[in-house]
């Protein structure tokens, strides 16, 4: 878990590199788009993994609220990266093999709202998990999972 | 066929037929619900696991035509049967043919792999997971999920082959195999065989075993606290 956190400044550097690349030509932009795609795939996988850990734990006889809170923090932290993970030119129209749908860029307001929704629900989950009430946690895990869906249903190619 | 065929003789016992048709219903249910209605999908999967456990048990302790030792043949016998398969005469075999046996074993093996992979699978969002998925990490769960989809393509292929074989017997050899799997009875051209069938208590024992195993797997192999 801590390894992921130490890598976060790298994401920042990448972001800066990306904005530079946007100015300095298409070839560089393509390389940067590849990097941002790799970065978002890593982050989304980390969120999926954290969510699996939460759901696995809730299925045990004695769920561990502390562990769930820590995993919720991972989801929350990564969720704040989403808005910068999908720059123009990192979609299928630029020739990349990605499950990201073009609607991300044609309906940016809806996409931003969906990303915000996850940030809000994941933050709530962390707070509720810290409270330790397992039933409340279960309900909020559902809500957070729903927030994944509000983005994935319209904006991700169905596998 | 100038002679009048003899009266229908019992060929497949009831447990074998129930297992067969339940698998048909549950595999189709699992297929349609997969990726959509995961609760139904998983229940169908547990049902399939129970049926597979029962079928393996019945393949050793069941009625004569259900037993692996009765129908699984070596490569020699299989090759000999393959040579006669093209003839436009009905094959008057008792139970599965040696080639049909290969199909039965292949279907069972792929269904076992299919169900086994499903147990460890995780969806892309980490929301729905098979009951044993807690034993593996997210990436492994995703891999299991991808293989679960791949092995289903193999299973679909085998089912198509199975249906094609039934069509081949019906159209080319003028032999109806489906009715016998429903009624359990068939008319034999030659003398009717005398088959041994298993007593009811063996069936009850097999059902108990199947339900027990499926139940234990569904709860992630964790025994309830007493």
Protein model, in words:
The complex is a heterodimer of chains A (159) and B (226). By secondary structure, chain A is mostly helical. Helices cover 77% and strands 0% of the residues of chain A. Chain A has one domain: Four Helix Bundle (Hemerythrin (Met), subunit A) (Up-down Bundle), CATH 1.20.120.10. Chain A has eight helices and no strands. In chain A, helix 2 (8-23) runs antiparallel to helix 3. The longest helix of chain A has 33 residues, at 26-58. Chain A is elongated. The model of chain A is unreliable at 1-7 (pLDDT under 50). Chain B is mostly helical. Chain B is 62% helix and 2% strand. Chain B has helices at residues 14-33, 38-61, 68-71, 75-84, 98-120, 138-171, 178-183, 200-218; strands spanning 9-10, 185-186. The longest helix of chain B is centred in the last third of the chain and has 34 residues, at 138-171. The model of chain B has no long low-confidence stretch (mean pLDDT 94).
* Structural class assignment of chain B: mainly alpha
Indicate the CATH topology of chain A: Four Helix Bundle (Hemerythrin (Met), subunit A)
Q: Quickly count the domains of chain A.
A: 1
Q: Please trace the helix and strand order of chain A, writing H or E for each element.
A: HHHHHHHH
Number of strands of chain B: 2
Structural class of chain A: mainly alpha
Compute the gyration radius of chain A: what is it?
Answer: 17 Å
Question: What composes the largest sheet of chain A?
Answer: none
The run of helices and strands of chain B is: EHHHHHHHEH
Helicity of chain A, as a percent range? over 70%
């Amino acid at each position: 878990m801590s390894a992921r956190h130490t890598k976060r400044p790298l994401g920042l550097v990448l972001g800066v590199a990306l904005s530079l690349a946007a100015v300095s030509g298409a070839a560089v932009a393509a390389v940067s788009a590849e990097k941002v795609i790799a970065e978002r795939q890593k982050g989304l996988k980390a969120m999926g993994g954290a969510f699996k850990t939460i759901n696995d734990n809730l299925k045990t006889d004695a769920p561990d609220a502390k562990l769930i809170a820590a995993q919720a923090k991972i989801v929350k932290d990564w969720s704040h990266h989403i808005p910068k993970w999908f720059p123009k030119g990192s979609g299928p129209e630029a020739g990349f093999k990605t499950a990201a749908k073009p609607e991300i860029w044609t309906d940016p307001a809806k996409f931003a709202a969906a990303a915000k929704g996850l940030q809000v629900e994941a933050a709530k989950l962390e707070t509720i998990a810290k409270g330790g009430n397992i039933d409340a946690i279960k309900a909020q895990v559902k809500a957070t999972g729903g927030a994944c869906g509000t983005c994935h249903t319209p904006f991700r190619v169905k596998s | 066929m100038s002679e009048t065929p003899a009266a229908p003789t019992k060929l497949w016992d009831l447990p074998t037929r129930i297992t067969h048709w339940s698998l048909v219903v549950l595999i189709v249910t699992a297929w349609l619900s997969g990726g959509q209605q995961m609760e139904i999908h998983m229940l169908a999967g547990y049902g399939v696991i129970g049926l597979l456990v029962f079928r393996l048990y019945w393949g050793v302790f069941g009625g004569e035509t259900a037993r692996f030792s009765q129908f699984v043949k070596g490569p020699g016998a299989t090759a000999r049967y393959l040579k006669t398969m093209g003839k436009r005469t009905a094959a008057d075999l008792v139970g599965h043919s040696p080639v049909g046996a290969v199909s039965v074993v292949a279907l069972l093996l792929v269904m076992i792999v299919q169900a086994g992979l499903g147990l460890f699978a995780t969806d892309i969002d980490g929301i729905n997971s098979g009951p044993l998925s807690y034993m593996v990490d997210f990436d492994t769960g995703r891999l299991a999920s991808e293989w679960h989809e791949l092995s289903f393509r193999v299973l679909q292929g085998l089912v198509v082959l199975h249906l094609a074989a039934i069509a081949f017997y019906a159209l080319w050899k003028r032999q109806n195999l489906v009715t016998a799997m429903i009624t359990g009875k068939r008319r034999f051209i030659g003398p009717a065989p005398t088959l041994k069938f298993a007593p009811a208590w063996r069936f009850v024992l097999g059902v108990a075993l199947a339900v027990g195993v499926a139940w234990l797997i569904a709860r992630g192999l964790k025994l309830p606290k007493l």
